[in-house]
Amino acid sequence: MKWYEIISRIDRRIIYLLLTFFVVLPFFIPLTIPQNIMPQTQKLFDFIEAIPQDDKVVLISFDYTPQTMPECRPMAIALLKHCFARNLPVIGVSYDPQGPGLAVEAFATVVDELNAHAVTREDSLVYGEDYVYLGWKSGRIAALLEMGENIKGVYPRDHFRNAVDSFPLMQRVNNYKQVAIAIVLAAADYPLDWIRYPQTRYGVKVGTGLTAVMAPKYYPFVQTGQVSGMMSGMKGAAEYEKLILDKGYAKELGTAETGMNSQSMIHILIIVFIILGNIGYFFARRKKSES
Amino acid sequence: MKRLLPLAVCLVMGIVMIVQFFSPHPVSLQFNSMILKWVIILAAFAMVLAIGNLIRHHGIKIQRHKENWPFSIVTLASMTGMAVIGLFWGVEDGSLFQKIYLNIFAPLSATMFALLAYYMASAAYRAFRAKSLEASLLLIAAFIVMLGFMPFGQYIHPQFPAFAEWIMRVPNMASQRGINLGIAFGAIATAMKIILGIERSWLGGKE
């Protein structure tokens, strides 16, 4: 077998083995490569940074799934840390049936971490006062539109079956007029529904945190201003982690940073394999045309 | 009558809801709110229907010992088990429901999805060949975006990440906008056809 045939027919088991090796490697040899911040991530950070305290709430729609957790969970954690550090109340909702379990986990992770360092009652995060998770609701588009009139009409009870009216936070939130921005963390086209319906009708500001494969579709909406900021894939999450770390809202970088190192390694590996495959292909083609 | 009534309801409600969208009158808003509540309730009923269908499908599979029928037992037992645990023991952080979700369902789902990376790497190596000008352009653009979006990208050239971002913001955005407009026009045309009764496949059955 000629050398160009060898490099264009590498056994897939070798590819799988190398892939596993390079995914795991950054977990044992940490790399610290500075992140360059993309404009759309900066826009989202700046938007939340500019929300006045004791005014409006931040609404986060947890619509990611376990499959896309490595990309979207760090976004959720970083966003929650940012909002809570700025004393911005957060209301969580979900329209993907797989979302609630992950939303509860994300809230618990951040709240437990921040409350562990709290000294006074004012420093602590209290459910119903600083944050609420309303849960999943069927009939997504209808629910999104109806929330523009009355959020409590759509969610009379929260995810844990408590009456929403009993929460001090929900007593001052009636509809989108009290929402500064709705940020949709998703692996599917959920943000499009937010742009099409509540934004068109009620003018609600929309931000997104999307998987890398979804992000290209939303660039036109960022350009028109319909999306006020976007985290794109694991890179977007790592950028947001860096932004909140630099501002002093977090003590250390999150899991997206390590994930980015693994992802970068894999991208380089894939590029190397594609180049090898193409070199083999060109030489084989040349040999064929010569003969 | 069986076909005429749904068509009439569709026509009337379609036109009413379009007109309502542009009317800020309190009566119009109240009507909209009522209809939206109906839709949310109807969507919940659709879920009940879906669960019923799932039970029926897998029940028949188990009863007739069709291929892979033991997996149907797992499906039904998992669905019933999770529903009972969630209903009676709650869904709070630290609850049994949450523990099962985070420690069994989430890793299983993530593992299935992670396998995709292996297939993608293998498929990219085998199929991503610069066989034509278009394929070569795609290959070059993919390399630039992949390298530019990596933290390493800035070491190739300080402007390299900005160039990758430009590809996403200009050529990508232009094509995405074209696709989005095409989809939007298609959706408007389909909606009009349904409202006016030209498109009747949603009624089911034969014409």
TrEMBL record, chain A:
<keyword id="KW-0472">Membrane</keyword>
<keyword id="KW-1133">Transmembrane helix</keyword>
<feature type="transmembrane region" description="Helical">
    <location>
        <begin position="14"/>
        <end position="33"/>
    </location>
</feature>
<protein>
    <submittedName>
        <fullName>Uncharacterized protein</fullName>
    </submittedName>
</protein>
<keyword id="KW-0812">Transmembrane</keyword>
<feature type="transmembrane region" description="Helical">
    <location>
        <begin position="265"/>
        <end position="284"/>
    </location>
</feature>
TrEMBL record, chain B:
<feature type="transmembrane region" description="Helical">
    <location>
        <begin position="100"/>
        <end position="121"/>
    </location>
</feature>
<feature type="transmembrane region" description="Helical">
    <location>
        <begin position="68"/>
        <end position="88"/>
    </location>
</feature>
<feature type="transmembrane region" description="Helical">
    <location>
        <begin position="177"/>
        <end position="196"/>
    </location>
</feature>
<feature type="transmembrane region" description="Helical">
    <location>
        <begin position="5"/>
        <end position="23"/>
    </location>
</feature>
<feature type="transmembrane region" description="Helical">
    <location>
        <begin position="133"/>
        <end position="157"/>
    </location>
</feature>
<feature type="transmembrane region" description="Helical">
    <location>
        <begin position="35"/>
        <end position="56"/>
    </location>
</feature>
<keyword id="KW-0812">Transmembrane</keyword>
<keyword id="KW-1133">Transmembrane helix</keyword>
<protein>
    <submittedName>
        <fullName>Uncharacterized protein</fullName>
    </submittedName>
</protein>
<keyword id="KW-0472">Membrane</keyword>
